Amino acid sequence: MLTFEDRRKLKKENFETLKKNFLLGALTFEIPFSKNRIVYTDSLDKIEENVVYVLEDPLLYEGKIERIDFSGDHPIFNKLNFDYIDYESDFFYIHSNSLILKFDIFALIYSSIFNEFELKKREDFEKIKLLRKKPFLEKILFEIGKTVREFFLKKNGYYLEIQKREPFLLLTFDVDRIRYFDWKKDIYYGIRKNFFKDEISSQYFKIKKQYKTKDPWNRIDDIQRILEENCLKGTFYIFAKKRDIFTSRYSYKESEKLFKKLNKKYDVGLHLSYESFLSEEMIINEVERFKDITDKESIDVRFHFLNRLTEKQVKIFKDLNINTDSSIGDRKNSSFFTGFANPIFLHDNILEFPVISMDSALYLEEMRGINFTENIDQVLREIEDLKGVFSFIFHPSSLDEFTYEGYSKYLFEIIKLTGEKKFKSVSIDELKKILKRREEKVKIENKSFFVDSLTDYDLKFYFKDKVFVEKELKFNFKEVI
Predict the structure, then answer these.
(1) CB within 8 Å of 97: residues ≥ 6 apart
(2) Taking a C-beta distance cutoff of 8 angstroms, is the pair 365, 334 a contact?
(3) From the CB of residue 232, how many other CB atoms can be counted at a distance below 10 Å?
């Protein structure tokens, strides 16, 4: 239950979006009339009483980290060294009856989403690596939110928090390929088998004999069966381009068939090609083709190769009416790449669902000697603590044990582990609606504040020495302001 003032002279980034991500992590709302003020500034020359100050760090906006200090378990990025008294919280100073955050949380949010960190000290590389094993940024925001709440309760006597109820499982399927066999391979491996008698060509024809008329990579029906048997939701990403720089994918007609088959029960998004990541024209062309296939006005996307997005790409997404992206993640590790265990905003109305793990990353981790069950169990425990979202990518072709030996177990183990931990299975569309409801249910009319019934959250309203836990809330500002 906060209000924000941006007093900086230069305002480059989208501060409205950064505020949204702050509020998601701090578990509260913005209310324009509130006395619970957070002031974002580029100067601390004049400090008022009963305010929380955040001082801008231009270097951190560029992803440049001069140092990482730890106070207990809490990391502090580019700590401000002022001659102020430490507050009882690790993250704040206290001066003139106001709190001053020891680092720029808004710049950290921005760079965690859009920048690769540039580290000045060699030892900080290992610190970042270890931090990303946990949703470190969301934990920082949670601690900041708790301190801010306690501070403003002492000063102003009221505060509003959100309580999330359960963690979510977001199963996504990248349909990269649907065909292992084709006539070109038949000719190529036939020549190799006849002239060189090599093992690869022999294996190809052995697999073909085993499958007969079926293809080992055409596993959409199998995935649907697995989802139905386990009462799970799924989101599928399909191509709208026949080939990319790596290989042939599938035709426009096959994309159309896939959509018609899947759209009856599941969300279907666009799998943007690898090379479109650097081409606005390609993004536009593939989005337009996908909209032709689906008749959708607004869509969800994921690039073929996990990577950070740029602000330019986000602007393209906004212009093309793209709702969500799910492209940011670590290709080689199960990790909290952005520092979040929950969805975040890329722009005011564009959500990012960070990828926490994928089948190929688990395979690479196993090759390095990591026990994938223990690893995923630890990841799920971190997500449980924050009632977050375990976003997992599985490729339907990975079900095939001939061409992707050892991959299928990842899907079944994740279904088992999340089931035991009572993760709620959701689709991209459901998660969008949950977050949208949180925003839409908050209304300010005639000096009254309303929060209509939230089915996915509880409201915790602190007023003087009382705490009310409600599903909906209404009060007049005069009562608390």
Answers:
(1) 49, 50
(2) yes
(3) 16
Joined together, the tokens standing for residue 22 give 């702050």
Q: How far apart are CA 395 and CA 357, in angstroms?
A: 12
Neighbours of 120 (CB within 10 A): 12
Look at residues 145, 231, 267, 180 and name the one whose alpha carbon lies nearest to residue 418: 231
The backbone torsions φ and ψ at residue 164, rounded to the nearest 5 degrees and listed phi first, read -85, 150
Q: Answer for the pair 387, 166: CB distance below 8 angstroms, yes or no.
A: yes
b/e map 145-157, b = 16+ CB within 10 Å: bebbbebbbebbe
The CA angle 141-143-149, to the nearest 5 degrees, is 100
pLDDT (tens digit per residue) in 252-282: 899 999 999 999 899 999 999 989 998 999 9
Its pTM surpasses 0.85: yes
How many Å apart are CA 251 and CA 148, to the nearest integer? 54
- Please give the Cα distance from 302 to 398 (Å, whole number): 18
Q: Which of the 8 DSSP states describes residue 403?
A: T
Q: What is the pLDDT at residue 88?
A: 85
Fill in the amino acid letter for 49: E
- Widest CA span in the chain: 89
Neighbours of 23 (CB within 10 A): 21
Q: Which residues contact 139 (CB under 8 A, 6 or more apart)?
A: 74, 386
